[in-house]
Write a structure and sequence with these properties.
Elements lengths: L3 H13 L3 H22 L5 H13 L13 H8 L9 H17 L10 H17 L79 H24 L8 H12 L3 H13 L3 H9 L9 H4 L2 H12 L3 H13 L3 H13 L3 H13 L5 H11 L20
Length: 395
């Protein structure tokens, strides 16, 4: 692994010329990290205790004082884990800080270590300013899906995202992909399409249909590119001959994209088609009670599916799953997705994802950051970097 001071020097160097979208992503990432640090400095308390303390304010006479929101367990977990991919609203941040100060006192700790609402508001405004300077999101897809929806899009890289998929835009489009690999190129989501109504989370397996087919195909094509469309076609037609594998993989993508109701629907479809692991997960997972099921939250299943695609010689399909797992904090997935971005010439995205992998403790990500700094060119071409890249094929 590279010496930390060399990696930090490189981070500072790219920060001087960092585009607004990556700067906003970094500011948001740092703010969420500060929230987690404050949480630790308060004990840390349990999520249940924070919710209990916040509800005390609801029952007390607070005339003239701040309005404290109830800190629901699932909401607090999602914000601190970065799962919501956006800046929390200020009333929630203010409530979180004030309740944390109470928790610190309860744990015989100094509440001043948490900071005051005024100090946090200064940080909050800085992040909002960085987000405001980033590019606006793309407009939703409005054109209807062609009658022959199996036809592949002409520009397979047109929708490649950057690391801030739900709030930020790509820094530059990817290069043209050779014809020999266009059959597997994917076009992941920018997170801008409106969601269609999903199946009822509390219903039994198969009691509710999936979203209307045309809407669902449009959404999956935009969200997961050709890989998502291929899995959708296979899952819809699987009567057991594929043993539920396509539906299981589709459920993994949807879970990583924070669509628990749809994920559970396809998990149940996979179970009915004979997938044993899907049956176990579907029986154990209640999205209404625990939207971030721990098995999905860790993103290990998406990462393992990515490895399977790599072994099958389908790196672009693998990248869709690495991207989903990396977005939930999986260091190995972030590293592999960063290397994928390097290979297709998306150097800024590669730098951001390798940096995330390095911060999450991946032993080789720092070295790849420095190789990128030494070999990358300003016009976005690999410029000799790829010859230094390790193989991403699973051993």
């Amino acid at each position: 692994m590279c010496p930390p001071h060399r990696v930090d020097t490189y981070r500072r160097a790219i920060g001087l010329a960092m585009p607004d979208d990556l700067r906003a992503l970094a500011a948001l990432h740092d703010f969420i990290a500060d929230l987690r640090t404050a949480f630790e400095l308060a004990g840390p308390p349990t999520y249940e205790r924070l919710e209990t303390l916040s509800r005390r304010y609801q029952n007390a006479d607070r005339d003239g004082g701040p309005r404290i929101l109830p800190l629901a367990h699932s909401t607090t977990h999602d914000y601190l884990s970065g799962k919501r991919h956006r800046l929390p609203p200020w009333p929630w941040v203010m409530s979180f800080v004030l309740v944390l100060r109470d928790a610190a006192v309860e744990n015989a700790l100094d509440p001043e270590a948490i900071g005051t609402p005024a100090q946090w508001h200064t940080k909050y405004r800085a992040v909002r300013a960085a987000l405001a300077q980033s590019r606006p999101p793309r407009p939703p897809l409005s054109a209807p899906v062609p009658a022959d929806w199996r036809a592949e899009p002409a520009d397979p890289h047109a929708g490649d995202p950057d690391p801030g998929r739900h709030t930020l835009q790509e820094s530059r489009p990817g290069p043209k992909v050779p014809a020999s690999v266009t059959d597997e190129v994917d076009r992941p989501s920018t997170g801008t399409l409106p969601r269609a109504s999903g199946p009822d989370e509390s219903s039994g397996a198969g009691s509710e249909p999936p979203p209307e087919p045309t809407i669902m195909r449009r959404r999956y094509a935009e969200a997961f590119g050709r890989t998502g469309m291929r899995l959708l076609r296979q899952a819809e037609g699987d009567e057991g001959e594929r043993q539920g594998v396509p539906a299981y993989r589709l459920a993994a993508l949807l879970a990583c994209a924070d669509r628990p109701a749809e994920a559970l629907y396809w998990l149940r479809r996979a179970a009915r088609a004979g997938h044993g692991r899907a049956a176990e997960l579907a029986a154990a997972w209640d999205p209404a009670a625990a939207p971030a099921f721990p098995y999905w939250q860790g993103a290990e299943i998406a990462y393992q599916i990515g490895l399977e695609y790599d072994r099958e010689g389908l790196p672009f399909s693998a990248a869709v799953f690495y991207r989903g797992a990396a977005g939930l904090g999986h260091a190995d997935a972030a590293y592999r997705y960063g290397l994928h971005c390097l290979r297709i010439g998306r150097l800024r995205d590669a730098a951001a994802w390798l940096d995330r992998a390095d911060r999450n403790g991946h032993p080789q990500a720092g070295q790849q950051l420095l190789l990128h700094a030494l070999g990358g060119s300003s016009d976005g071409s690999p410029s000799g970097v790829c010859e230094h890249l390790p193989s991403t094929a699973p051993q």
